[in-house]
Automatic annotation (TrEMBL):
Belongs to the bacterial solute-binding protein 1 family. This is ABC transporter substrate-binding protein. One of its GO terms (cellular component) is periplasmic space. Keywords: Signal. InterPro entries: Bact_solute-bd_prot1, SBP. Its main location: periplasm. It is found in: Periplasm. The keyword Hydrolase does not apply. Residues 1-25 form the signal peptide. It comes from Noviherbaspirillum cavernae. It comes from the Bacteria.
Length: 431
């Protein structure tokens, strides 16, 4: 698929407004791009291909891709480089890093670099739900690129074996429990050999939790990033449901379920249903030995998922020439055809409605209808949890969520403790 992507990019280059590449520039502007590699799906070669094609079309710009590890490692490396006076020009970092990057004065507003009417039209062309984690205070700080929602994958063969309709995922919380009970199997000694459902609780615990609070009509923070609402009744009810899947219904392993191994467990048919990022779609399509389906997360009061994933950010302390080159690359990488190609190659959601109207994406959707599930879920999506001092706030929530899931705190006590700590951390921002 990556070979097809690069061929289509090369063909696209002929017909785009960039035209035929001019002669090689003597002193190209050097732009560094920090990119997180520890994400769902094989993306490094795709990024390399995009960079090579961009440089071919723009020989006056040299892009140096730096693969910086996980999202968490990437922001640490990017901020360390910024503070040492050698910042990256562009970085793909979590959309939730927005307030942290602003507070460090590490990034520049996109509006200041893209101010023409055409630029404003481009900025206005992204899905509004993705822009919730990209704009604040009347400014645009990030451009959606590697974005996702949480979806449910289910094994159609195991559904059929359990007497369930293989083409129908559970639509709500009650059906999830009912289906999962039929899908959980144990050996003669009582050891579970196949779990009905696995919902990861490491890595992005708060994000997965939002996959339950969102359909329960509960928002966890305000848009200014200064207040959280972790102990709302809807949040407590959502966490109780999550805990009950293992503690009460016995359809999910107790304790911690690793984010990174959940797709592997699904591929090895150790779990009939899993929750993970849409970014794993291409990975699962390439490696699954069985037919599977993709569905929106089960509803309670209504469907819903938080958005997730990474934005492009342009760093401060870089030259005007570098920033101009950075914007050219970001515009190029998010044009409709390229956004479609990126989505097809990786499984991430094409971030603009016009990308879904391209011939490439229409053809792909005919072949892989499941790719449209994440797009359809965007109408119910909310912003991923993001606040000032975000890493400390999310750690407070993650630690308490895991305490509830491991049985050391009740859901109510865990969320009260998380809210108390978040309030303390954010006190200085409430002015």
């Amino acid at each position: 698929m990556r070979r097809v992507l690069l061929k289509s990019m090369a063909a696209l280059a002929v017909s785009t407004a960039f035209g035929v590449a001019p002669a090689l520039a003597a002193n190209p502007v050097e732009v560094s791009l920090y990119y997180p590699v520890a994400v769902g799906g094989p993306v490094t070669k795709t990024i390399d291909g995009m960079v090579a094609e961009f440089e071919k079309q723009n020989p006056d710009i040299k892009i140096k891709a730096v693969y910086a590890g996980t999202y968490q490692e990437s922001i640490v490396k990017a901020l360390t480089a910024y503070k040492s006076g050698t910042p990256p020009t562009i970085a793909v970092l979590l959309s939730t890093d927005l307030f942290t990057l602003i507070d460090e004065n590490a990034i520049v507003p996109i509006d200041g670099l893209a101010s023409t009417p055409d630029d404003k039209k481009w900025i206005g062309g992204f899905y509004k739900s993705f822009m919730e984690n990209s704009q604040t205070g009347g400014k645009t700080w990030g451009i959606p690129f590697q974005r996702s929602t949480i979806v449910m994958f289910w094994n159609k063969n195991l559904f059929k074996e359990a007497g369930l309709n293989p083409d129908k995922a559970p639509a709500n919380w009650a059906e999830t429990v009912s289906y999962a009970k039929k899908l959980t199997k144990a050996d003669a000694n009582g050891n579970v050999t196949q779990w009905g459902v696995k919902i990861p609780s490491t890595g992005f615990t708060y994000w997965i939790f939002q996959g339950m609070t969102t359909p329960n009509d509960t928002i966890l923070m305000n848009s200014a990033g200064t207040q959280t609402y972790f102990d709302k009744p809807g949040a407590v009810e959502a966490l109780q449901y999550w805990v009950d899947l293992s503690a009460k219904h016995k359809v999910m392993p107790s304790g911690v379920i690793e984010w990174g191994t959940t797709p592997k467990d699904f591929l090895e048919q150790k779990a009939a249903m899993v929750w993970t990022t849409t970014g794993n779609l291409t990975n699962l399509r390439a490696n699954a030995t069985f037919p599977f389906g993709v569905a929106m997360l089960p509803a309670n009061k209504h469907p819903g998922s938080p958005t997730g994933g990474g934005n492009f950010y342009v760093f401060n302390k870089t030259s005007p020439e570098q920033q101009k080159a950075a914007m050219k690359f970001i515009r190029w990488a998010t044009e409709p055809q390229r956004a479609a190609q990126w989505s097809i190659a990786t499984g991430y959601v094409a971030t603009r409605p016009d990308a879904w109207e391209t011939p490439e994406m229409k053809k792909y959707l005919q072949e892989v209808p499941a790719a449209g599930v994440a797009r359809d879920q965007l109408q119910y999506s909310v912003a991923e949890l993001s606040t000032h001092d975000n890493q400390r706030v999310t750690k407070a929530l993650n630690d308490n969520l895991q305490a509830a899931l491991s049985g050391t705190k009740t859901p109510e006590a865990a969320l009260k403790d998380a809210q108390r700590e978040a309030t303390r951390i954010l006190r200085s921002w409430q002015r």
